Amino acid sequence: MSIRRKKIFNAALVAAAVFCGVLFISENQLFSKGVQKGLSICANSVIPSLFLFMILSQFIALSELGGTISKILSPITVRIYNLPKNCGSAIIMGFIGGYPAAAKMISSEVKTGRLSKKSAQRLLCSCVNAGPAFVIAAIGVGVYKNAKIGAELYAAQVLSSIIIGFIMSFCEKRGEKPENIIPSNISYSSAFVRSVASATESMLHICGYVVFFSAMAEWGIKSGVIERISDITEKIIPFAPKSDIAAIICGLFEASTGSFLSINPVVTAFILSFGGMSVIFQIADQFSDVDISIKRFILTRPIHGALTAMLFCLITKIFPTAINTGNFGNNQAKAVLISDSVYVSIALMLSSVIFLFTVSEKKKL
After folding, report:
1. Rounded to the nearest 5°, which phi and psi values hold at 178?
2. Side-chain-facing half-sphere of 193: CA atoms under 13 Å
3. What angle do helix axes 88-96 and 65-79 make, rounded to 10 degrees?
4. DSSP-based three-state secondary structure for 118
5. DSSP letters of 53-94?
6. All residues at 6 or more sequence positions from 183 whose CB lies less than 8 Å from its CB, including other chains
7. Which ranges of 223-292 does DSSP label H, i.e. alpha helix?
8. 246: left (phi over 0), alpha (psi -120 to 50) or beta
9. Main-chain dihedrals φ then ψ at residue 4, nearest 5 degrees
10. Which of 132, 165, 192, 292 has its CA 20 to 30 A from that of 308?
11. How far apart are CA 210 and CA 285, in angstroms?
12. For residue 330, what is the DSSP state?
């Protein structure tokens, strides 16, 4: 970056900081309510569904248990994901642990020398998912009053991750796997102590991002900014309902806020797998002390979301499900039948981008 561009960039940052400061003061009540809502999400959803898995992921990564699990899963890891044998435990944790749990484990594996940065970048693309407790209980039962919907959302997300992992496997030549399963020299008691301390610190960081982006999303809702953007978008894209647009915009900030606002499970499927800026910053935080680029991870998030939405539509087409939206949206109970024609078309077009992305990445290697 040239000196002139750097000065312009710094000036823009100063102007943005001043604007945010004035906005936070003038709209203090709205932001305060947003912070309170974010804290409520952390206390009722994030911490209960994630904290224990964060401890477990760290314990597995630091102890010999990680090597044992990876050895059992090594055939799947090598043949489907085209990754080293020692990645199995991170893949499993990505399915059951919640958004940053697998990322925390991958970061630990890199620090201990068990995993190369190159493999970590590719593994990260398919290991960041919402946990089953959040998807099935909080979303399925809490939002749609139907655990089956939550199970179908979770199944679509898992299948999407596996497909992305398989497609990304072609970014690297098969058979070139220098990493081996290295036994840990840390005792189980020491690993547990370190895991609890590390998970507690990570949860504070995670909750910080959730609260911040929840506050921003809440301000956007209450101030009418998101409504105005939704009105404009609805005129440009007439087939997209205003409620879906508003949920997606909130989901771009924070996945929980967008998911709770959505009354369309297809939109929820996209939001859950995309994760929003909150999840992206949570993942970046896990690698703050490790020199690993997350650009590829960021590029695959919208693809992950589109593919999950498509798979969810296919699952519900085979098993049609009536959905009760309860008190969400316009506060009137509705029973809707999942309609997937438009969203499947969009998801198919967006998910096809992954093939172009894979080819371009392969050429770089």
Report:
1. -70, -25
2. 5
3. 90
4. helix
5. HHHHHHHHHHSTHHHHHHHHHHHHHHHTS---GGGHHHHHHH
6. 64, 67
7. 225-236, 242-253, 255-261, 265-274, 276-286
8. alpha
9. -65, -45
10. 292
11. 13
12. T
Q: Is the dihedral of CA 184, 189, 192, 196 positive or negative?
A: negative
In the structure encoding, which two tokens stand for residue 194, read together?
């370190």
**How does pLDDT run along the chain (365 residues), one tens digit per residue?**
678 888 888 889 899 999 989 988 988 888 999 899 999 989 988 888 888 888 888 888 888 887 788 888 888 888 888 888 888 888 888 898 888 888 888 888 888 777 888 888 888 998 899 988 889 988 988 888 889 999 999 999 999 999 999 988 887 776 555 455 555 667 888 889 988 998 898 899 999 999 999 999 888 888 888 889 888 888 888 777 888 889 999 999 999 889 888 889 999 999 999 999 999 999 999 888 888 888 989 999 999 999 999 999 999 988 887 666 444 444 333 334 444 444 444 555 555 555 455 445 444 54
Encoding tokens for residue 337? 């039948």
Do residues 69 and 101 lie in contact, with contact meaning Cβ atoms separated by under 8 Å?
Answer: no
Residue 304, token pair as written in the block: 């992950």
**What gap in Å lies between CA 105 and CA 342, rounded to an integer?**
38
DSSP secondary structure, 178-234, as one string: ----PPP-S-HHHHHHHHHHHHHHHHHHHHHHHHHHHHHHHHHHHTSHHHHHHHHHH
Question: How many residues are there in the chain?
Answer: 365
Query: Which of 127, 144, 107 is CA-nearest to residue 279?
Result: 127
Query: H or E stretch including 322?
Result: strand 322-324
CB 94 within 8 A of CB 126: yes
Cα(212)–Cα(152) distance, integer angstroms: 30
Amino acid at 360: S
